[in-house]
Amino acid sequence: MKILELAEPGPLRDCGVNAILAGTKTAMTGLPAIYYKEGEPLPTAGERYSVIDSAGKPVAVIELTRVATEPIGAVGDAYAQAEGRGYRDAADWWSAHEAFFRSDFVAEYLGFVPDFDDGTLVVTQWFQLIETLS
């Protein structure tokens, strides 16, 4: 089973993990460049992940139910709300994701700051919570 570390350890990861555990986060987004950097193929429906908290402890298992690579401009309000972080709409979601994907954390990892426009490809991933680990 693959490991899922949302964002970097700290408040952003904790918020996402808590939303998964509460059942309010049922989607997540990645950049294709991150998978390429890791030498991994893009995710596919049916894959399971062990969700890791900020302390490095496995806290849940999720299974991807739908995965698509699509332009960020095509992402709608329903997906934004499924991210479980309280986004009002797709524009609010876009703003938060642009800030994260252009952050020093991601830029250091990738070795560059990604460009963002309506055509920027993102990997949208819907999932379900399979198990909460104690």
Q: Report strand %.
A: 25-35%
Can you tell me the residue ranges where pLDDT is under 50 for at least 5 consecutive residues?
none
> For the record, what CATH class applies?
Alpha Beta
Report on the biggest sheet. Answer: 5 strands, mixed
The computed structural class is alpha+beta
Percent in helix: 25-40%
Radius of gyration: 14 Å
InterPro entries: ASCH_domain, DUF984, PUA-like_sf
Pfam family, one: ASCH
Domain ASCH: 4-131
Protein name: ASCH domain-containing protein
Q: Could you please describe the fold and organization of this structure?
A:
- It holds the Pfam family ASCH.
- Residues 4-131 form the ASCH domain.
- InterPro entries: ASCH_domain (IPR007374), DUF984 (IPR009326), PUA-like_sf (IPR015947).
- This is ASCH domain-containing protein.
- It comes from Actinoplanes couchii.
- By secondary structure, the chain is an alpha+beta fold.
- The chain has one domain: Sulfate adenylyltransferase (Roll), CATH 3.10.400.10.
- 33% of the residues lie in helices and 28% in strands.
- It has 5 helices and 5 strands; from the N terminus they run E-H-E-H-E-E-H-H-H-E.
- The protein has helices at 11-22, 32-38, 77-82, 90-101, 104-110, and strands at 2-4, 27-30, 48-52, 58-71, 121-132.
- A 5-stranded mixed beta sheet has the order 1-3-4-5-2.
- The protein is globular.
- The mean pLDDT is 95.
